[in-house]
Amino acid sequence: TSSISFPGDGTRKRVVSEIPYGALLAYSPRGQAEVSRRSQDVCYRLKGGDPTTLQRAVQLLREHIATGGVLSPFFGPRVALVPTPRSAPLVQGALWPAEVICRAIADAGLAGSVVPCLRRTVAVQKSARAPRGERPQVSRHFESLAVQPMVGITERIVIVDDVITKGSTALAAASRLAEIYPDADMKVFALVRTKGLVPDIDRILDPTTGIVRLVGDEGDRQP
What is the pTM of this model? Predict the structure, then answer.
């Protein structure tokens, strides 16, 4: 863990300084080549809760795990999936993409439980809409999140999101969960990872694992 200063009151909080992450698909937000454009369509469909696209992605994940792929350690019957909250407090009846993804993964037999115990108490700016350099930092995400202890948490927690970019939200979520479940083994999984620093991508199905580290007050995802 590391400590970071929180704006306003000057207090320092202990936060998770690094966490393993995995992702199944790659996404180019600005690429113009054919594969990049298809990745944009897949990403938008997943964020929008399109059931056909989600089921296809989960089937690819299941096939990958069945062959012992790099994402296999992220799943199993003893894993509790915790969906990452949206950028604003959830309105009843609204789509919660990460929760839908968790349910689909669990229904495919790849995890033991879905535990929607993280919630957003105040809204933060959506990272996708924030100008470069102005995305919400880890401390802002941390302040806006709370954990409601629930039945179903095990010693293995995987925090699930639809898309991972820098990983600031993931670090904040892990930090909040670590306050309540300090002995849990935690990882982060996203169906899609953003590859915004390359002009184009050559494949969408690109199972990858790596680390998200705290650098200053931001997440640094590698790769």
Answer: 0.94
